[in-house]
Amino acid sequence: MSTMSTEIAMDEPPKSFLQRLVGIFVSPGATFVDIARKPDFIVPLIAGILATMAVIETMLAKIGAERIVRQSLEQSSRASNMSPDQMQQAMEQGAKFTSIFMHLTGLLAAPIVLLVVAGVGLLIMNAIFGSRLKFKTALSVTSYANLVNLLGAIIALVMILVADPEQLNPQNPAPTNVGFFFNPRETSKPLLSLLGSLDIFSIWLIVLLGIGFSEAVSRKVKPATISVCFAVAWAIWVLAKTGLSMLG
After folding, report:
1. Contact predicate 196/136, CB 8 Å
2. Global pTM value
């Protein structure tokens, strides 16, 4: 009977993207079983790219590259040593680079991040736990787990559209992390970087990665164990980012 049930499950058509999207929020375990059975990453990857582009393009349209550069300069120690003419020149020159950089970030950030996270997941599962997971499955699990950030993108879009451009921090526009509630002009860069990393969606993503990779290897490794491994990797990244912020 068990073998027959397995064969029937394998013959079932995979869930649609919308079914998997809803399932990530309401029944992640069963959804990742389906993803592991029929892995695909193209549609969720495109969704991640479009969400990032929507936030960045809306930010550029509402706030503007020149204002973003000015706010960044005002939050640094450089502004106090610059004359008004120097500040204006820096804003004009920086705006051109910032605009191009942000357009590229919207297009490339999601694929690069997801490839790196999938690679870390593959390393954890195959090198540490001795699994034989394929990269396509790892990337599919990562891409679908990342769909929780669509909710974060919606929150960021609402904040960008309704908030005062002069008061909005372009580097941290959504109230989903501790750093959002601290004044960037009065808080040290390392502390702001650390607090900004304590984000509800980062924690949610780590939990989903644990569930997804566990289901991808038929729960031979517990979800909590995998989540802890991802949490350690995330903590190393946060510490490295905080260290870089100390160097300016």
Report:
1. no
2. 0.88
